[in-house]
Amino acid sequence: MSKRRFGDRKDGIRVRKIDSMFVLIPQVMRTRLDSQVHFEEEIALDAMEKFIREHKEDMPSLTTMHIVAAALVRMMALRPCVNRFVVHNKLYAHTDIRISIAVKRGITEESEEATIKPLFKPTDTIYDVVRSMDAEMAAIEGEGSENDTDVAARILGKLPTWLLRFVVRLLFFMDNHGCLPKFLTDLSPWHTSAWITNVGSIGLSPVYHHLYEFGTASFFLSMGKKRNMPASDFTGEIQTKRKIGIRAVVDERVCDGYYYATALRSFTKYLTHPELLMEPPKEVKRDPGVDWSRYE
After folding, report:
1. Please, what sign has the CA dihedral across residues 115, 40, 132, 79?
2. 114/45 Cα distance (integer angstroms)
3. Range of the domain at 115
4. What would the pLDDT profile of 210-244 be if each residue is shown by its tens digit?
5. Quick check: is 290 in a domain?
6. Ordered alpha helix ranges (H), the chain
């Protein structure tokens, strides 16, 4: 985005070309907690695990998490209305695709949790996603390592409670009015297109994780543990298939239910056919609610 119009934010463009109902809905459902909708899917792992085995040489670090993140990036490239957010009862389109990912610094139970927030392009392939995520992971690898987000959290955590309460309220106020400095939105894991957490890494089934009121995330995805589940084939015979549970919590104010359904179908298609992520999309779509000619 080369310039901003009055009413835009540093991290988002005001969506102005929308149905009147989508102007009204954020006034009725004023918070993300009011507006949460839950989705659940069980994804067969055959294709993903085969893909990982076949690409151990050109992508040695490739995991299920990389494929899920790449499928999410591709979904937002093709269904850009999912990459919107509501702040202070106004609808905005993100100016980029960032995904906050909760990860462990180590493999032990005592290992600290950290958050990375890679920046992706709509044209990214699975190779690009793996490189971006691995670069962010390398910065926090090992106990005691810190990224800029960790440093900011550590400084805030040392403030006395009364002062911390004031600072957080001030940050909420500034964010609601679009005047939070860009360096803070860059540091904040809450100012993102989506969140991903892999609770399966600690042996749990997927959870419905709430959306945060602070920040700009309208999509929270949870991955559960991999497990064998009964499934019937086309003859009706029961077989055991290895699957992973995925649950998503989304903000229904950003687009309609049919649009979300088509977006999530697209997402699951890339999980069951990850080879499609090896090439960039043939076409990247832009948010239809934004008059892009005003920004070019």
Report:
1. negative
2. 27
3. 12-144+189-278
4. 999 999 999 999 999 999 887 766 677 777 889 99
5. no
6. 20-28, 46-54, 64-78, 126-140, 148-157, 161-176, 182-187, 257-272
